[in-house]
Design brief:
UDP-N-acetylmuramoyl-L-alanine:D-glutamate ligase; globular; six-stranded mixed beta sheet; single chain; Protein-Tyrosine Phosphatase, Chain A
């Protein structure tokens, strides 16, 4: 494709050098540059892509997309302007999204794309929507934390929301494969870093907002406003579906041009649900006046199921068919996932890694206990993330569990003992005495199984579907569910 065709939809740009060159590929990693590539230099939170422009030029890139002012003192534009096209833009992240849309022939305009954002529930909501629509015979794609799917074909994933080039490439693949819908988790990082730039959404769902990612956003208000920016960007023909029971729901849509709808379990809304009863096998709900059974449990899942139902209705699917299929959809990997074992023990693996999510998981399980039944919680906090939630997580675990075993999550580049110190800072002296601190996560899980009373429920929280433990930049194999399955089998 000619560079002139690729950049013609940019709102504001300046080209220095041969603008009529042919482009054979687009990349944002200089190591992927080949002769004829367009290299996009993006400002980063850890590494600035502008530092690698010379590498890209030496790799025979035909064009460089860069952010205004970021190459000012390097002299590289003047040095190579005879052979390389330099495209200066106000925001290279935003511009890359626009260019990617052109390169992949605007795939988000050829598929019904729905984005799901919020602190908790994104993965469950997106995955249930993907499963629901495929079961209804509507071939769909999924972009989520757990996996990316193009129809039935799974693609690798490492981030809640992939980079902007990968998203457009996957959507293009979905269109080619005949998908008509795509359901996509939209993280606050992705919104802030313009990883959804150039996409046209048919709808957006807001699940809830609680404390998370303050290491990145610094304040709760900044975190909230980043989520809000997603709804601000939706076009007038799109829909916004927000949790009416969350006080931030109305904030999300107050400036949105989209068609606005609410769902709620506690107040009047466009779509409502009520839990009639629940047990370890599932729950009985009324959704929009119709009774339905689901194998999922907990109020948080009542909201997830309701948002899925509401979204499907807004996408013109019949209510009875939606509820019939929803009643058969099982839990998502690593989300309140049960592992049964000897001695009548039940272990539950859950991704809960925020105070609100941990409280939801523990209160759900607490409500299922019979008199004398024990609830054990194994939990840690991730390294290089929001430190302020660590003491809160410990307090919640101690409040709702009979025994807590505090341990490592993904320490990353932090000392796991320091992370545990932060958690213990939220506990009273009595709480520290009655609970355990075992840094090694395997030993912590093993101790929970060995010390559990007959019939106990063990919640292992924080990592959910993950099959690794990130320690000092190395992802070592570690799977909570697999470990529990083995320990519960051997006793």
């Amino acid at each position: 494709m000619k560079l002139t065709s690729l950049i013609q939809t940019l709102n504001e740009y300046r080209v220095t050098g041969p603008a009529d060159c042919d482009i054979c590929s687009i990349c944002q990693d200089s190591r992927q540059v080949k002769e004829g590539s367009l290299f996009a230099a993006l400002p980063g939170t850890e590494t600035d892509g502008h530092l690698f422009v010379r590498n890209a030029v030496l790799g025979k890139a035909a064009a460089i997309l860069y952010q205004r002012g970021c190459l000012k003192d390097t002299g590289i534009v003047e040095e190579y302007k005879e052979t390389v096209a330099f495209i200066e833009v106000p925001d290279s992240r935003q511009a890359l999204g626009t260019v990617a849309a052109v390169w992949y022939n605007h795939p988000s305009e050829k598929i019904t794309l729905v984005g799901i954002t919020g602190t908790n529930g994104k993965t469950t909501t997106a995955t249930l929507l993907y499963r629901l629509f495929n079961r209804m015979g509507l071939k769909s794609g999924l972009l989520s934390t757990i996996a990316n799917y193009v129809g039935d074909s799974q693609e690798p994933t490492s981030l809640t929301t992939p980079d902007v080039l990968t998203i457009h490439a996957l959507l293009s693949k979905m269109v080619t494969c005949g998908c008509t819908f795509c359901f996509m988790e939209v993280s606050s990082h992705a919104i802030d870093q313009q990883r959804i730039a150039g996409l046209r959404f048919a709808g957006g769902i807001f699940t809830n907002l609680t404390q998370d990612h303050l290491d990145y956003h610094k304040t709760f208000a900044a975190y909230r406003d980043t989520k809000k920016a997603f709804f601000d960007s939706l076009p007038p023909e799109a829909f916004s579906l927000v949790n009416g029971d969350d006080r931030n729901g109305q904030i999300m849509i107050q400036n949105s041009r989209s068609q606005k709808f609410t769902y709620a379990c506690k107040r009047m809304a466009n779509f409502t649900a009520r839990v009639l009863e629940q047990n370890a096998e599932g729950m009985h709900l009324v959704i929009d006046g119709i009774q339905v059974w689901s194998p999922l449990i907990g109020m948080h899942n009542a909201y997830n199921l309701l948002s899925v139902y509401a979204c499907a209705r807004l996408l013109n699917q019949p209510a009875d068919e939606i509820l019939r299929i929803l009643s058969s959809l099982k839990t998502v990997s690593g989300r309140m996932e049960y592992v049964k074992g000897g001695n009548n023990l039940t272990a539950v693996v859950d991704f809960a890694h925020t105070p609100d999510a941990l409280q939801n998981a523990l209160t759900t399980l607490r409500a299922l206990l019979t008199p004398g039944q024990q609830l054990i919680c194994v939990v840690g906090c991730g390294g290089n993330r929001d430190q302020s939630k660590r003491p809160l997580m410990a307090q919640i675990a101690d409040k709702y569990a009979d025994l807590c075993i505090f341990t490592s999550d993904n320490p990353r580049h932090e000392d796991p003992e320091v992370i545990l110190d932060h958690m213990f800072a939220g506990l009273s002296a009595e709480a520290r005495e009655r609970n355990l601190r075992i840094t090694d996560r395997y030993q912590a899980i093993k101790t929970a199984v060995k010390t559990a009373n007959k019939g106990a429920i063990i919640l292992v929280a924080g990592k959910g579907h993950e099959t690794y433990q990130d320690t000092k930049g190395v992802k070592n194999p570690f799977d909570d569910k697999a470990i529990l399955t083995q320990l519960l089998k051997t006793g």
